[in-house]
Specification:
single chain, Rossmann fold, 6-stranded parallel beta sheet
Length: 284
């Protein structure tokens, strides 16, 4: 995609009023001399559900949007509506970024790259023999791919919907071979034996406060990672830090998925360090 002098982008999701993504994109656009406008399309505010995605996507095309970010609960529901997928998005089975150009819609996944970059920076030398992941939705699919690509030996997936967890495990087995991923059956036993715990469920978000598992299952030998960044310190991370666990918040993933999305929307390289500084400033 060639660089344009103006970008009109948006974020489609539910309960996204606190998102820092618009400000991150617009500030980087300002720094590069672009006319860059980024709008929230909040299903909750509009009184809509993911069923409205076809209408919203069509409206974005007709009104000249350059691109859309897609978040909970739409990362998988958007796929059948798109003209094409990047190889990564097709492999993961989830889309968080859609480029609108030349009358076509192409889905990408920048969550996988974003989590992997945050993991490498924030937990560079942790044990990766056995990891427990909570959540198998769109973000969970991207994170699971990243974890196995980053060298996790065995990943146990837990989800409130057993069929969704199994579908993700089947996908991971196709990409990484048998034995690397399995549907978890005994959460307490798995966490007790695990080196790491990753929460990709929405539990812990400002709109869904609480813990995705009982606090008493945590232990000091565990590292704990979140993908939620609002709040930056979830109850899970607070409890884990109190035990002395090494932790990773969702901030780095938020920044690095935005870096790649900016590049897809604008056709220009983003300054990752500048966007990290913007994120830190916006967080206060």
């Amino acid at each position: 995609m060639t660089a344009s002098k103006s970008v009109l982008a948006g974020l489609i999701g539910a309960g996204i009023q606190a998102s820092l993504t618009p400000a991150m994109h617009e500030r980087e656009g300002d720094a590069q001399g672009l006319r860059y406008l980024y709008r929230l399309i909040d299903l909750d505010v509009l009184g809509l559900t993911a069923d409205a995605l076809p209408e919203l996507l069509q409206a974005a095309q007709r009104t000249g949007f350059t691109g859309l970010n897609i978040t909970f609960p739409c990362k998988q529901a958007i796929i059948p509506l798109l003209d094409d997928l990047s190889p990564e998005a097709r492999g993961i089975g989830a889309v968080n970024t859609v480029v609108l150009a030349d009358g076509r819609t192409v889905g990408h996944n920048t969550d996988c790259l974003g989590f992997a970059e945050g993991f490498r920076r924030g937990l560079p030398d942790v044990a990766k023999r056995l990891v427990v992941q909570l959540g198998a939705g769109g973000a969970g699919s991207a994170v699971a791919h990243a974890l196995l690509a980053e060298g996790v030996d065995q990943l146990f997936i837990f989800d409130v919907e057993a069929e969704r967890a199994q579908a993700l495990v089947d996908n991971l087995t196709r990409h990484f071979g048998p034995g690397r991923a399995a549907v978890g059956t005994d959460r307490a036993a798995a966490v007790a034996a695990a080196d790491g715990l990753v929460n990709t469920s929405p539990v812990g978000m400002a709109k869904l406060p609480g813990m995705p598992l009982p606090a008493e299952l945590l232990h000091p030998g565990l590292w704990v990672a979140e993908i939620i960044y609002f709040p930056l310190e979830t109850e899970l991370l607070r409890q884990a830090r109190a035990l002395g666990c090494r932790t990773l918040d969702g901030g780095t993933m938020a920044v690095f998925q935005a870096v790649k999305a900016f590049e897809l929307f604008s056709g220009r390289s983003a300054d990752a360090e500048r966007m990290q500084a913007h994120f830190a400033e916006l967080r206060g």
